[in-house]
Amino acid sequence: MFDDAPVAFIKLLRSCPAILSSALVYLLCTSTILFLNKHFKYTGLCCYIVLCGVISNIQIMYPTKYEFMPLAVLLGTVVFSSTFLATDVSNKCYGSQKSKKIIYLSIICNIFFILNMILMLGHNPLKTIGMNKYIDALSLIFIPQVRFTVASYISFITSQLVEISLLRFLGKSVFGHNASLFISAILVDNFVFTLFAFIIFNDGSFSTQNAIEISLSAIVTRVVCNFFNSVTYHIFLKNNDAL
User: Fold this and answer.
1) Is the pLDDT of residue 170 over 80?
2) How many domains does the chain have?
3) Burial, 123: exposed, middle or buried (Cβ in 10 Å; 0-12, 13-18, 19+)?
4) What pLDDT was estimated at residue 241?
5) 19, 68, 83, 184: which one has the fewest Cβ atoms less than 10 Å from its Cβ?
6) Which pTM does this prediction carry?
7) In the 3-class helix/strand/coil scheme, how is 115-158 assigned residue by residue?
């Protein structure tokens, strides 16, 4: 009974345009950021960004296509883009030094997570209790995670530090904030991640065409996410200044 409910919901979502599911993901991320900041302050934002690192690096194994865009999209882009909104809120409320600490904490926690999963897979599994398919699924998810995790966090730390620095000079207006997000979250992060994940660390499973297609789809998705991030951030600023 309990397993049937999420399966039915997944079937319903798959019968709808894929963009609807991504829109729901974005709304979930945005509302969670604002809720955690309001009720748990700095600690809540720390937890959010750490979890987003784990979630986005798992979702990157799930490709899809949006109906309006004939390019393959690796999921996780929406969740990862929301970390820039969380960083901006943290930077505004708690300062750049504390925001940098969240980034370092996220990297440490996610490396800890991946190492634990790799060590788990190092155990000899029992083949007699009907869990072979789950063991195989975990192997398929977390063994490639090493490559994506390293690439993700090289790009993550680079782009987030660029974002924090740019906000000091550009983030006082809607245009300036959009410019800082475009440079850090789209140009810097996307370029660095593509360079490491699909070129430097590529094991041959992705062709140059695949890398270009995935990079272009990520740029389009992030442009949309960053527009809404900027709108949400300035609504937050207006409400925060009014308090």
Assistant:
1) no
2) 1
3) exposed
4) 60
5) 68
6) 0.84
7) HHHHHHHCCCCCCCCCCHHHHHHHHHHHCCHHHHHHHHHHHHHH
For the beta carbon of residue 232, count every other beta carbon within 10 angstroms. Answer: 20
What does the pLDDT look like over 129-166, one tens digit per residue? 667 788 888 888 887 767 777 887 788 788 878 877 77
Token couple for 17: 């345009």
SS3 3: coil
Three-state DSSP at 64 gives: strand
What's the whole-number mean pLDDT along residues 10-34? 95
**141 is in which domain, residue-wise?**
18-242
* Within a domain: 225: yes
Query: Is residue 7 in some structural domain?
Result: no
Closest CA to 224 of 178, 190, 188, 189: 178
Asked whether the predicted pLDDT for residue 242 surpasses 70, the reply is no
Which tokens in the block code for residue 1? 């009974």
On whether the CB atoms of residues 218 and 22 are closer than 8 A, the answer is no
The answer on pLDDT for 78 being more than 80 is yes
**Helices of type H across the chain:** 4-14, 18-59, 77-94, 96-121, 132-142, 145-170, 174-181, 189-195, 208-242
Residue 5 inside a domain? The answer is no
What mean pLDDT value characterizes the chain?
84
Asked whether residue 186 is assigned to any structural domain, the reply reads: yes
Greatest distance between any 2 Cα atoms in the chain: 62
Strand partners of residue 228: none
